[in-house]
Specification:
The structure is a homodimer of 193-residue chains. Chain A is 62% helix and 7% strand. Chain A has 7 helices and 3 strands, in the order αβααββαααα. Chain A has 193 residues and is mostly helical. In chain A, helix 2 packs across helix 3 and helix 6 packs antiparallel against helix 7. Chain A starts with a helix and ends with a helix. The radius of gyration of chain A is 22 Å and the shape is elongated. Chain A has a 3-stranded antiparallel β-sheet. At the A-B interface, helix 1, helix 4, helix 5, helix 6 and helix 7 of A face helix 1, helix 4, helix 5, helix 6 and helix 7 of B. The structure holds a DNA duplex (28 and 28 nucleotides).
DNA sequence: GATGACATGTAATCAGTTACATGATTAG
DNA sequence: CTAATCATGTAACTGATTACATGTCATC
């Protein structure tokens, strides 16, 4: 029995309550998607796999107003496997950041183009930051102040905290990058006069 | 003609000077590896592909003390393609952070196990932080103070700056996480007395 | 003579994305 | 009747990792 990371991701969501594959995909967008993404076409086979391993079971639910669906529930075996996994040190994943790769070769670019690139990135990350900060406040209001480490909402809070710190750094770095090229541009203009 | 991200990564390295496949793989470890990793078995076919596209050429160099090697040089076409690529906005990659996924389900864990996980992570990132900070100082000494945006060393400096900010945030967040579980543990012990 | 760094590749496998295929039900 | 959402899947392709395969040269 070996479970893929996606498998654990699905178990982590199902640990909070039963859901259909379609609904799992929705969760894979909104809160989970910030640190683990996945497509429906990958979720369905993975659910079948988890069921074959005895980590989940499903019931067909017939709905009147919508098409019928399969609602999956985590089993004791699944719960045990998930609990064992959460505190196992993850193997450091191969880093892959295309923006940093571009940055490594950015000395080749025109200042104007570089400034545009980093201003755009700065704005993008500022938007995400605002989104996360909104989420953080929502969570703090839902539970009185900071959630306790043993309630599910703590998972949301802790990850959103990381998101805020991450996006905050990103925005500042992008800002610094654009600034460097603006300074270079200014001194170029001065030289040509 | 379409070039993969790995292809651009190789071009970005070759833009600083000709190298063999083996040497490119070395660079893929030391400075580039922090934001783009790759194996030799992927590099060799990619170099052949780049050569077929006219982005690089190679010469066989016979060495006396070592086996012969193929040294690759970037062409004008390769240089043009690279320069056009560096300032194109990258498509945001699907986020995938296993530690955050575990964090989302960490409320299921025992406080002791959680503390160990985050203390270990904190130490790991503190080590990387020290490594990056050392690198930053080395670069600042090599060039008088901050490298100019249009010299190659700026690429190294800018990426290492991001690395420092990132690892710094990571260390702080891990520390906060461990602290949350230590507080939970302390209040548990108090309750049982 | 064995080990390790240098050097270049191919083959099998895996995880994940995109495209394809089908169908129910509701709202406009 | 048409588009959007809900709902479940399969198939083809792509990028990357791991394992396999071969060989040179220097040092211990």
């Amino acid at each position: 029995m070996d479970i893929s990371t996606l498998g654990y991701a699905l178990l982590a969501i199902l640990a909070r309550g039963p859901l259909s594959g379609y609904d799992l995909a929705q969760r894979m967008k909104k809160p989970i998607g910030f640190f683990w993404q996945s497509q429906l076409s990958q979720i369905y086979p993975e659910l079948a796999h988890l069921e074959a391993q005895g980590c989940v079971t499903h019931k067909v639910i017939v709905q009147e107003d919508r098409p019928q669906k399969k609602v999956y529930t985590i089993t004791d075996a699944g719960s045990t496997a998930l609990k064992a996994w959460v505190t196992r040190s993850p193997t450091p994943p191969p880093e892959r950041n295309e923006l940093l790769l571009k940055t490594y070769a950015i000395w080749l670019a025109d200042s104007e183009a570089a400034i545009e690139l980093f201003r755009t990135q700065e704005q993008m990350h500022a938007e995400r930051l605002a989104l996360y900060e909104h989420d953080r406040i929502r969570i703090e209001q839902e539970s009185g102040r900071v959630p306790h480490p043993h309630e599910p909402l703590f998972g949301n809070y802790a990850t959103v905290r990381m998101g805020i710190a991450y996006e905050h750094e990103y925005v500042e770095w992008c800002h610094w990058m654009a600034e460097q090229f603006e300074l270079a541009l200014a001194s170029q203009l001065q030289d040509s006069q």
